[in-house]
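Deliverable D4.2, example record:
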Amino acid sequence: MSYTDTLIKVAADCPVNKSEIPVAKMKTKPIHVFQYELLLEKPYAYNHEELVYQVYVRQKEIPVEVLARDSEKIKQELFSKGHPCMRASSLTKRYGWGAHYNEEGKIAIYPMESEEYKKLVGTEGIKVIPAMKSKR
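Output generated by the structure prediction step:
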């Protein structure tokens, strides 16, 4: 599922009142750290599917030569099952980052305390959806 002209607002039960940079606490990076790195490095470069694919490739450390040969097969297997959107990401639930999908469905993240985030929350024509709560 992908959104357009939508802001995923920081979850109501987010434990921080200022965005935090996520860090890996173990040897392997969790998904939200890859999301953070990719979306900060290249805002509005990836839609939901592209982001899921890029995170998967990096997380699994798939070599370039394997990607050149088998990328379609990898995508087919990867997308044979669903993947949660940014509403379920720790970035929007725990670390205080809002995720904006532009008119093309491309994603950028904004710290909750930033002017850009505040502007997006109040922009007419942008649908604002809260991130999923951590607790029920």
